[in-house]
Amino acid sequence: LASLVFQLRAQNQVLKKGVVDEQANSASLKEQLKMKDQSLRKLQQEMDSLTFRNQQLAKRVELLQDELALSEARGKKNKKSVESSSQLSQEQKSVFNEDLQKKIEENERLHILFFEADEQHKRLEAELRSRLEVLETDAAQHQAVVDSLTKKYTETIEKLQNDKAKLEIKSQTLEREAKDCRLRTEECQQQLKNLQAALGSRLEESLCIINEKVPFNDTRSARYNALNVPLHNRRNQLKLRDLAGQAMAFVQELVTALLNFHTYTEQKVQIFPIDSATDTISPLNQKFSQYLHENASYVRPLEEGMLHLFESITEDTVTVLETTVKLKAFSEHLASYLGFLRKILPYQLKSLEEECESSLCTAALRARNMELHRDMKRLTAVFERLHTYVSLLALPSTRPEGLLRTNYNFVFTNIAASLHGFHDILKDISKHYSQKAALEQEVPTATQKLITTNDCILSSVAALTNGAGKMASFFSNNLDHFSTSLSYGPKGGAEFISPLSAECMLQYKKKAAAFMKSLKKPCADSVPYEEALANRRVLLSSTESREGLAQQVQQSLEKIAKLEQEKEHWMLEAQLAKIKLEKENQKLKNSLSGHLTETIQEHSVLPNIAEQKKETTEKSLREPIKSTSLVRVPIRVTNCSAPDVESREDLIKTHYMARIAELTSHLQLADSKSVHFHAECRALAKRLSLAEKSKESLTEELKLASQNITRLQASKLFCNLMTTKRSYEDQLSMMSDHLCSMNETLTKQREEIDTLKMASK
Length: 761
Known about the structure:
Elements: H1 2-77, H2 79-213, H3 222-225, H4 234-271, H5 283-292, H6 296-312, H7 326-357, H8 363-394, H9 408-441, H10 448-477, H11 479-485, H12 499-520, H13 529-591, H14 596-622, H15 644-760
Helix pairs in contact: 1-2, 2-15, 4-5, 4-6, 4-10, 5-7, 6-7, 7-8, 8-9, 9-10, 9-11, 13-14, 13-15
């Protein structure tokens, strides 16, 4: 502040000196302006006097001219007088002319002087006015600057005075707070010493108990820490599943394009340079075509392996390279496809060379074939690099020592570079194939089938190029996410030790998730124990009785089915008997035609009996069945309106039918009782077996409960010790933090006091 005030004062003095100089210059210029105004007024007065004198001379000249004209007029009248006086007038005229000439010259000279003086005065006045305006603006600016500076200086002085007063008050309060803090620090130090002594003794006791009771700490050992479940990152898992889905779609596109490319290449080999439909192709091309025909068995597994890899990445799993076991299968499928490419590469190169040796091949077509020759070698080399890096990524799931975590980023970067190289090679292949197809169309023996096959190859190569470009850009854009998300592990550990530990960790994670789900389920309403036992007994007995009743119903249904079959049988027998009766009646009509009355009586009796039997059978079908058995044996009651013989037979029949119904009812009652007793015996046997099982389970639960009680007592003791240790550690950390904060406040207060002292000085 003092340096600022000193600078402001020095600037103020310089500005004051400049303002005084400008004021002196403006005063001198004003005096010069006054003097110029006075000289200008004098010149104006002289000018006015000259113009007045000039006007007088002009009037005098006019008068003289008038007199001359009068004298000439008089001279005509008296020539003599004129001649005598002509000499005198001539002399006067010459005198006047000379005088007039002198006045005219003097007037002209005065006019010139006046004009020059007027012009000089105007120019000088304009210069002085412009300079005066500039000086006035400068003076106004300087005055405004001076006013602003004086105002600013006054404000800063007032502000500094207020700040000084505030700082003095603040320094006094800080000094008081510093004194209080010193007292508090002394008290805290004393308390800290006491707490350290107490906590030291308790810590020794706790360590002794921990060493005796606690078996081990699993986080200290990397082998055991690898079995701990890491923190679940659901967002990371969803992102990885989304990325795996995108990669699967790109792989499906590449697989489709590769299938089309190999298939159309096979068709091309059979068409050009020799068409297999008209002539036999070379053994080399036959073998090459045979190998190309097997492309689906090598290309399709790539899509299946990627699909299995995508299905293995779910929301509930922990996706790292140690747990992605399906990546090994995808690497094996890629290795098999690489073997297929290596197998067909020599045949493909030899086929191109054979095509170059053909008579139909031109120089330009030969050059394109040699370019494709180089491109196919590069394509196989790119797939070899991709297989190398993918197999490296699959190593952590089988042999973790084969690839360190520090090299993950290097492997992912090289995969991205290989994919970009794959895309560049496919672009070159597409370019060279398009040129080759255009040259082959110009061959005179080119057919429409060859042109169509070339178009199909070009479309498949274009699809391959697009798919490879999408895959390369996708992998490059998500390279950082792959490097970071696929390399995390348990808390406190750097990595998983082995795939077996990762698999065990996933099993523990599933168990923990199931346990958490079971905790989240709402507890059902509890039932009293005695009521639950009674309900259980009722349930068991009801299930047993239900099984017995089901068996009884099944038996009853079987009996009903048998009775229905017998009923159908007897219905058929009744119909046959009726038919026989009609035949016998017809015979009686023919044989006993003489005895009309007897035949009429017999004819009237027999239909009545048949109709009566028919009516009784219909009534027996329509009337409800009177039975107490489950088999529903019918007891039919008929009216006796026949002769004595028939009534006696009907009585015997009804008696036996009633007896049969009674016996069947007793039999069914005995069957039902036996079934019931059998069901009761089964229920009792089952209850006995359940009671024995419950007794065994209760004994086992009793043993487990006793073991849990002993273990819980030990864990409770350990937990108490750990809680006391943690509480003491928290108190120590709080005291140390409090002391650090108090020391920081003291240092800040001292610095502020020092700055205030420096400012006040």
